[in-house]
Amino acid sequence: MRDTIIAIVVVINVLCGVLVYFSPALGNYILLGIASIITLLGVYDAFIQKNHSLLRAFPIIARLRWFFEEEREKIQQYFIEDDLNGTPINREKRSIVYQRAKKETETVPFGTQHNVYEKGYEFVKHSLFPTDHHTIGGEDITIGSDKCKQKYTGSIINISAMSFGSLSKNAIKALNQGAKMGDFAHNTGEGGISPYHLQGGDLIFQVGTGYFGAGKTIDGKRYFDDEIFKENATRPEVKMIEIKLSQGAKPGHGGILPAKKNTEEISKIRAVEPFTRVDSPPGHSAFSNFKEMITFLQKVRNLSEGKPIGIKFCVGNNEEIEEMIKTFSESNNYPDFIAVDGGEGGTGSAPLEFSNYVGTPLFDGLAFVKKTLKKYNLEHQIKIIASGKAIDAFDIIKLKALGADAIGMARSFMLSLGCIQARECNLDTCPVGVATQNEDLVEALVVEDKNVRVKNYHSKTILAVKEVVAAMGKHSIDEIEAKDVFRRNKAGDLTSLEEIYFS
Fold first, then answer.
1. Of 250-259, 281-290, 405-414, where does mean pLDDT reach its minimum?
2. What angle do CA 453, 418, 442 make, to 5 degrees?
3. Confidence of residue 252 (pLDDT cuts 50, 70, 90)
């Protein structure tokens, strides 16, 4: 095959030369130039380069394989996938975010595309006497235990953790301004508080194992620092503090900021070397057991002047989580909230094995935490915030049914900014300027347009939740219970989430 391909391109090159000889027009010279370049490329592929055996066997043609392989996901998304089979978020889910963010038509014609008789299909049962959705309450929540001096009242739907660095400055600004417009909270992620977070929206200040915005580097290691933390934690925009133990996409690993995205500006905020890959440690240096954790949480609570303090983790070893909650109960000191992340959580950068095979999925982890808090009589002190691929009203209702008091949403708010699920977050090439530090791409995201879409998506999703809850005959979102949501099992029977997770 190699000899045939080389022979063909040489013949074409000779024919182009003959054409130029008899008709020396500019267009023919250009044609000869192109043919000559292809011929030289074929010779290089077949006889000179030695790294790629496929190129040596199929010069020039093998390069087409690389092109289509590079563009495979885009081709799949645009031309092959249907409304339901796209991953990690299918087209139907993405479309409802876009429609609500833009206030476009969000109704669907001709009935559901879901197979309502297949295993795993989920639904809620409605009432013959629905209530008026305008009167439905429960869209707000107050977080703060009896240990908290500055309780926080906010929305049940908030922006989950995404750092400046992972996201662009324009994305962060649009998210925070949208949160201000819609009166809900914006989690900073573990990258610290940047100027772009300070647009007037309520902040949940996340402190990860790297202590960015809350610590400093000593002999190459990151340590918590009281004064640095206090400076940020006492800002009026900061309403709650979240200590991240792990996250769903890479539990037990620590965050990753690719070198390309670690600009001079970001490195100053994080107090690290610019243009180097930044790996957060897998664990905290400030504590190494549950009693030390409680001491640290109380220290953080005092330094923040009594603001709600929480911990975030993806459920791993159940016995370990129960031991932690038991220690909270026995010591009579505990966080004000627990943010439960699912193993299906999203991220800008994670090792494949951690993303696919480490960490408990959200439904199972959430139900376990809820049961354990109830077992140790802490369910009224510690609120639960759930995070893991929540997109529409039904997702939120399921998480409420399984014990969540509030919901953190990340990828859905990225979609409201215009994310097209290109899945290039770790390459610094996000085509819509959401997850990149490339200035040309960042400028494409117009803050004054996207902030309104963030607000719209939030308000329309809250409205959708109220409409479904009203159809169920309830008077408040808080009345949702696990027995209200049903799932078809392998045998084809219907089972409530109460039976599946809480029996």
1. 250-259
2. 105
3. confident
Convert the pLDDT of each residue in 194-250 to its tens digit. 999 999 999 999 999 999 999 998 888 899 999 999 999 999 999 999 999 998 888
Q: What is the pTM of this model?
A: 0.90
Name every residue whose Cβ is closer than 8 Å to that of residue 285 and which is 6 or more positions away in sequence. Answer: 209, 221, 222, 223, 224
In the Cβ-directed half-sphere of 418, how many Cα atoms lie within 13 Å? 21
Which three-class secondary structure string do you get for 202-218? Answer: EEEEEECCCCCCCEEEE
**From start to end of 234-382, where are the E strands?**
238-244, 256-257, 278-279, 309-314, 337-341
β partners of residue 339: 312, 385
Domain ranges (residues) in the chain: 2-70, 124-502
Distance CA 83, CA 345 (A): 21
- Classify residue 147 as exposed, middle or buried by CB count within 10 Å of its CB (0-12, 13-18, 19+): middle
Distance CA 390, CA 344 (A): 11
Q: DSSP labels for 109-149?
A: SSS--S-TTSTT-EEE---SSPPPGGG-B--EEEE--TT-S
Ramachandran category for residue 486: left, alpha or beta (phi over 0 → left; psi -120 to 50 → alpha): beta
pLDDT tens-digit series, residues 400-449: 999 999 999 999 999 999 999 988 898 899 999 999 999 999 999 999 99
The structure tokens listed for 273 are 């070397």
Distance CA 162, CA 281 (A): 18
> For residue 347, which amino acid is it?
T
Q: Which residue has the higher pLDDT, 170 or 27?
A: 170
The domain covering 124-502 belongs, at the CATH homologous superfamily level, to Aldolase class I (3.20.20.70)
HSE value, Cβ hemisphere, 13 Å, CA-based, for 182: 31
Q: Using omega within 30 degrees of 0 as the cis cutoff, is the peptide bond preceding 88 cis?
A: yes
Quick one: average pLDDT of 323-331? Answer: 97
